[in-house]
Amino acid sequence: MMDETLAWLLSREFRAYILDHDLFFPLLFLLRCIGVTAIELWRPARPVSYRAVFHKDLTVFLVYQFVIFPVAGQINHWVAIRPHLPEAVLALPLLVRVLGYFILADFGHYWIHRLMHTKQLWRIHKWHHAPTYMYWLAGTRTTISQQVIVNLLLNARDAMPQGGTIMIETSRQGDAVQAVVTDTGVGIPPENLARIQTFSPFAEGREDMTPPEVYSDRAADKPRNSPGWNVRVVPNKFPALEIEGSLDRRGEGLYDKMNGVGAHEVVIETPDPGLQLADLPVEQIQRVLIAWRERMRDLRKDPRLRYVLVFKNHGAEAGATLEHSHSQIIATPIIPRMVQEELDGSRRYFELKERPVFSDIIDQETGEAQGRRVVSQTERFIALAPFAPRFPFETWILPVQHRASYHTIEDDGELLELAGLLRDTLQRLNAALDRPPYNLVLHTAPLAEPDHPHYHWHLEIMPKLTRVAGFEFGSGFYINPTPPEDAARYLRDIELGS
């Protein structure tokens, strides 16, 4: 009988029973209570009068955990699923929403907190404040970040009725910490997904949710910062570099430093939050490419800036924090190290052979290499897998004829051709790799030196299929399990619809 009971407790059926009856977290709490208390009684970090405080703290904790939390969760769920409530709130004038926030949220939170300090509710709330004895139970006071993570985990669990895997990844983003929660659940139903996507701050009609635009493609009769646009460029709300101020270059011993002066802008690539760059018509991608060019030309007028970096992070794994299709522009007062190394290497090659290295690469890939690493090609552009790619399915797009700087392109028809090849390449990657996250980076000559005879602007597209880890950081070498010839052939053989 004991063996049968133990086998059932260890079985998949028991785990399913626990999950189906919402017993997982209560049992987890019970085990935590017993285990941690036993450890602290065995090896106490400090003397605690458990007989005096434990039963009170435990009672308060259980009330908070199994009464307050569930009620708050139900209220939150009820508000969230009301079909028209969010749209109705967002339809109100901005001033009304601001006043509503201060009255209902800020003022309301104040009075709720005052209510928690009344005689009737103090026993529920008092554990939140510093107790007489600090031990594991008294120290589990909930924070906002903790509640957010718990809610995310609960949502992920509920999305996996048949079981699955929940993953939490953290990374440092400047002074902040980014936490990404993913699961193998069924996902959001399509009918709800469309509604969620409408909350993008970049969507048409939400122009007041971004800083004032610095560039837009819109009809002449449409005023700035209003609906009716195709592409918008706005300053980043959380810029890596600030446009105001002086560089103030200075030394500190053997080190050099300067102020974080530059520009950081967001290119909103479409008014539709449900479309990604690969899904856009070729004409719309052309508008995006024109926006890149025009912003580079404008930023070039600032004598403090030496380089303009254009890049796109697609997908959370690639660093994107918003799903709405966008790219970014960062203008820097120095030339990035990677670009400088490309410039130095191409200059040495040119001095030795009196030919641009990128032109020789194109001749090699289309000639002696017999197109083994070519993905696609038009009259003026070529997409290929580089000879020594850092990542699986890394793909470059280069102009066939020598051109050092992207911003010197005058013919919009040339950008239309580039848009077609970029769309073709992204769609091939999507078909081959099931719409992978990726990073796209534009490499171009420095602003003050647009006519380098040895350099070649180009686009680099790097799907996020592997992780950069200790070996890569320690050696500068990259482990790539996919030969570029195989990747190019696989992409080349994909048949795309019209």
Tell me the β content: 15-25%
Query: What is the N-to-C succession of helices and strands?
Result: HHHHHHHHEEHEEEEEHEEHHEEEHEEHH
- The CATH topology of the largest domain is HIT family, subunit A
Largest sheet: spatial strand order: 3-4-7-9-8-13-14-12-11-10
CATH class bucket of the largest domain: Alpha Beta
Number of strands: 14
What gap, in angstroms, lies between the N and C termini?
66 Å
Mean pLDDT: 81
Low-confidence stretches: 141-146
Specify the CATH homologous superfamily of the largest domain: HIT-like
Number of helices: 15
Structural class category = alpha+beta
Q: Please state the second-level CATH architecture of the largest domain.
A: 2-Layer Sandwich
Count of distinct structural domains:
2
What does the radius of gyration come to?
A: 29 Å
- Sum up the overall morphology in one term: globular
Q: Into which percent range does the helicity of residues fall?
A: 40-55%
- Main pleated-sheet profile: 10 strands, antiparallel
Brief sketch in words of this structure:
It is built from 15 helices and 14 strands. The chain is of the alpha+beta class. The protein folds into two domains: 2-163, no CATH class; 198-247 and 258-492, HIT-like (HIT family, subunit A, 2-Layer Sandwich), CATH 3.30.428.
Describe this structure in words.
- This protein has 15 helices and 14 strands.
- A hairpin with a 2-residue loop joins strand 5 and strand 6 (255-257).
- The protein has a ten-stranded antiparallel β-sheet, with helices on both faces. A two-stranded antiparallel ribbon has the order 1-2.
- Mean pLDDT is 81; it is low at 141-146.
- It folds into two domains: 2-163, no CATH class; 198-247 and 258-492, HIT-like (HIT family, subunit A, 2-Layer Sandwich).
- 41% of the residues lie in helices and 16% in strands.
- The chain has helices spanning 2-9, 12-20, 24-42, 50-81, 85-90, 94-116, 122-125, 144-158, 190-197, 282-299, 337-353, 357-366, 412-433, 470-475, 484-492; strands at residues 166-173, 176-183, 215-218, 229-235, 250-252, 255-257, 263-268, 307-314, 326-332, 374-377, 381-384, 395-399, 438-443, 458-463.
- The chain has 498 residues and is α+β, with helices and mostly antiparallel strands.
